[in-house]
């Protein structure tokens, strides 16, 4: 009999409890192993008083320790006390499952090492992509590959907002308000709309894919708060959509990772992903490009990923116990390869701005698109790496008629 303790009973925790209860008999028949989820830790008991299984609840961590669980499922969120609690159990050889991306992005390497030292398992499938089994795919089914790229629409809130802006010609603030009213965005949406959530998930995926200690703090991160209706219109002119993409590449020991709004061909796999859906494209040297699509958050999709980890623990499946991240790599803050870019130049004199653009980019393939606005130019620049592009955009910015410049990677050009 495996004794399970649940730390947290919110959106995800209640879903996990539901799945454990629903599947208990089936699991017993299938693996001849029982599960008992008899202790649940929360902060304030009052919220849970009316539940049928209220006697399982406690707000005292000492009760969880005294229960002597075989498996701990942490779905409280945040760094502390989750970090201390998880460390306590791993040090004592207890298997831990968590959905906590904030914690794993910050302390994943340390906690995996602690698990290894103490013969325990640490599993965190639900921390990236909710119900999409992306971490397991990287670690199991795709083990025969060296990965060289990850591209992902991995934050449902921002994808919902950008979809509203695209389909209903809505400004950012109105789309955010609808997302909040419909429960797709939190009252404080900073972590989502500023790209931090996607950055943490990218760091977790990239660490596993390249077996490197990728900290999310090294990533250049840009969110969607500065996306204007004209950016969406410009993307439409190019048969594209603006998507917040978490992307990384690894080549010749050099890592590039970033979260940034990009133009994605509207009929490509990531371009077709709308609303709260998430998608990840991995590129491996053997498998080529492979796509995973599905619900990246929510009670049961996320609980489904936690439950999958639980079944592995119940069966004592040890997933790559040798996984170790090293620091042997260099990183760059700008896209290191040649790509195609959409440039928006805003200012007061279109003719002067066009002349300046043509002059600055005289050595590059430049195409000026007919835009909608009388104060903006949309230009397409091909086969340029980002560092060179930024140098030239800085030259352009010194023109007195230019007030603002934005550049978007055209993702399909990679
Ligand atoms: N929601 C999703 O769709 C989703 C998707 C993927 C991953 N995740 C991750 O899953 C985790 C849980 O998310 P959630 O949405 O389920 O959160 P939630 O709805 O806010 O629930 C949090 C639960 O943890 C308890 N809790 C929080 N701090 C605690 C503490 N210090 N001591 C004891 N109990 C504590 C809360 O108890 P009280 O009610 O008493 O405060 C509540 O029961 C987070 O790490 C999140 O990033 C969530």
Give the key terms.
Dihydrodipicolinate Reductase, domain 2, 6-stranded parallel β-sheet, elongated, 6-stranded mixed β-sheet, 3 domains, 16 strands, binds NADP nicotinamide-adenine-dinucleotide phosphate, about 425 residues, single chain, Alpha-Beta Plaits
Distance between the termini: 51 Å
Number of strands: 16
Task: Give the CATH class of the largest domain.
Answer: Alpha Beta
Query: Given the structure, what is the number of helices?
Result: 13
List the ligand species: NADP nicotinamide-adenine-dinucleotide phosphate
- Spans with pLDDT under 50 lasting ≥5 residues? none
The largest beta-sheet arranges its strands as 3-2-1-4-5-6
Named CATH topology of the largest domain = Dihydrodipicolinate Reductase, domain 2
CATH evolutionary superfamily of the largest domain: Dihydrodipicolinate Reductase, domain 2
What is the CATH-assigned architecture of the largest domain? 2-Layer Sandwich
Report the sheet-strand fraction: 25-35%
In round numbers, the mean pLDDT is 94
Could you estimate the helical fraction of the residues in percent? 25-40%
Q: Outline, from the CA principal axes?
A: elongated
């Amino acid at each position: 009999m495996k004794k399970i303790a649940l730390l947290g009973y919110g959106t995800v925790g209640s879903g996990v409890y539901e799945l454990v209860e629903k599947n208990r008999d089936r699991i017993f028949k299938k693996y001849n192993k029982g599960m008992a989820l008899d202790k649940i830790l929360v902060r304030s008991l009052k919220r849970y008083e009316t539940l049928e299984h209220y006697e399982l609840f406690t707000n005292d961590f000492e009760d969880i320790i005294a229960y002597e669980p075989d498996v701990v499922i942490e779905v409280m969120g945040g760094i502390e006390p989750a970090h201390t609690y998880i460390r306590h159990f791993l040090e004592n050889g207890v298997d831990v499952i968590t959905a906590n991306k904030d914690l794993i992005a910050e302390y994943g390497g340390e906690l995996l090492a602690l698990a290894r030292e103490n013969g325990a398992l640490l599993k965190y499938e639900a921390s990236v992509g909710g119900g999409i089994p992306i971490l397991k795919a990287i670690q199991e089914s795709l083990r025969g590959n060296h990965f060289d790229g990850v591209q992902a629409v991995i934050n449902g809130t921002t994808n919902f907002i950008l979809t509203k802006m695209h389909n209903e010609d809505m400004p950012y603030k109105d789309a955010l308000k609808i997302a909040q009213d419909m429960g797709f965005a939190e009252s404080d949406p900073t972590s989502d709309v500023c790209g931090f959530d996607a950055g943490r998930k990218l760091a977790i995926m990239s660490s596993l894919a390249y077996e490197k200690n990728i900290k999310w703090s090294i990533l250049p991160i840009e969110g969607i708060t500065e996306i204007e209706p004209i950016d969406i219109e410009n993307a439409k002119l190019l048969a594209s959509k603006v998507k917040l993409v978490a992307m990384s590449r690894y080549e010749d020991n050099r890592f590039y990772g970033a979260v940034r709004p990009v133009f994605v061909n509207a009929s490509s796999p990531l371009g077709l992903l709308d609303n709260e859906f998430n998608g990840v494209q991995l590129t491996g040297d053997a498998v080529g490009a492979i796509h995973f699509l599905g619900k990246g958050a929510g009670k049961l999709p996320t609980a489904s990923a936690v439950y999958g980890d639980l079944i592995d623990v119940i069966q004592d499946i040890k997933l790559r116990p040798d996984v170790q991240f090293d620091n042997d790599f260099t990183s760059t803050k700008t896209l290191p390869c040649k790509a195609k870019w959409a440039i928006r130049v805003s200012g007061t004199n279109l003719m002067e701005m066009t002349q300046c653009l043509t002059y600055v980019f005289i050595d590059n393939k430049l195409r000026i698109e007919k835009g909608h606005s009388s104060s903006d130019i949309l230009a397409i620049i091909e086969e340029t790496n980002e560092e060179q592009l930024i140098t030239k955009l800085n030259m352009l910015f010194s023109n007195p008629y230019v007030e603002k410049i934005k550049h978007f990677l055209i993702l399909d050009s990679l």
